[in-house]
Amino acid sequence: MTIKLNVLILNWNSANDVAGLLISIAKSHFADFRVILIHNATSDEPAIRGLYNKYKNIFETHLVVNGSNLGYAGGNNAGYEYLKNNGLDGDVLILNPDVRVSPTTFEKMHQVLMEQGVGGVMCGALDQCGHSLYDYINLVGFTSKYRHTDRDSVVTDYLAGSCMMLKRQPLEQIGLFDENFFMYWEEVDLSLRMKRKGYKLLSTTKCKITRAANDNSRSLNAIKYSIRNSFLIRKKHPEFGLLAHYYYLLGMLILATAKTVKYKSLSYLSGYFESLIYK
């Protein structure tokens, strides 16, 4: 059977979420896919191996075990390198473990991906109560604006890292993620590099994913790495501009202060100031 799609799922202390995601994937109407489970060196490796052993008898499943935590960028890159090293063809879908797909998600997204000139596709997202989070994303300076639309498909400034489907050809030209980011902003960098090669990025509303809310610990990492990596984004993509960066850093300072007050923890403000100098 020809495999049209490789589904990369990166685990970092998320075995329970991965289990739920695989349940939803098993209901997919789109049959031409394989799953690459990537384990990023956390203590739940036995659970991930158990899921691999279970699902390899349901659909084609492979397991990649990293010796250390390579972050979102390096972890997914390890899955992509596994595809290349083993001669596995097909486009790439990156899914976060806390995502749930509908039976038509793969099919609807891949239909859009096959349109002429398209390099990558995302789709609309719902929260766990069924409320719409976004249909596509505008990037205004360094700030993401989550938009809604009545159109079936629309141009998006970048692809959401929680669910992004990528055509194999541009990946062969530009690679997947820049591992210097580790986590956060790497999907923006990839999207900008893809657009520079002339590829369109689209979002479809013909299907939706469901996303879980980020927990408190992840919000701390979001602040730290978002600030750190904003310097790397500005270095790689000067069109963002210095003034826009200053506004972004001020906004993040306000956010870090608010979270410090809310959670009564100085870790947010200390993380902010530690991240101001990109190394």
Q: How many discrete structural domains?
A: 2
Overall shape: it is globular
Series of secondary-structure elements, N-terminal to C-terminal: EHEHEHEEHEEEEEEHHEHHH
Query: What's the CATH topology label of the largest domain?
Result: Spore Coat Polysaccharide Biosynthesis Protein SpsA, Chain A
Structure annotation, total helices? 9
- Kindly report the oligomeric state of this protein: single chain
Secondary structure: helix percent: 40-55%
Tell me, rounded to a whole number, the average pLDDT: 94
* CATH class call of the largest domain: Alpha Beta
Biggest sheet layout: 10 strands, mixed
> Which secondary-structure class do the elements indicate?
alpha/beta
Low-confidence stretches: none
Question: Describe it for me?
Answer:
The chain is an alpha/beta fold and 279 residues long. The protein folds into two domains: 5-211, Alpha-Beta Complex (Spore Coat Polysaccharide Biosynthesis Protein SpsA, Chain A); 216-274. 41% of the residues lie in helices and 24% in strands. The chain is built from nine helices and twelve strands. Strands 1, 2, 3, 4, 5, 6, 7, 10, 11 and 12 form a ten-stranded mixed beta sheet that branches. Helix 7 (216-236) runs parallel beside helix 9. The N and C termini lie far apart (47 Å). Residues 7-174 form the Glycosyltransferase 2-like domain. It comes from Grimontia kaedaensis.
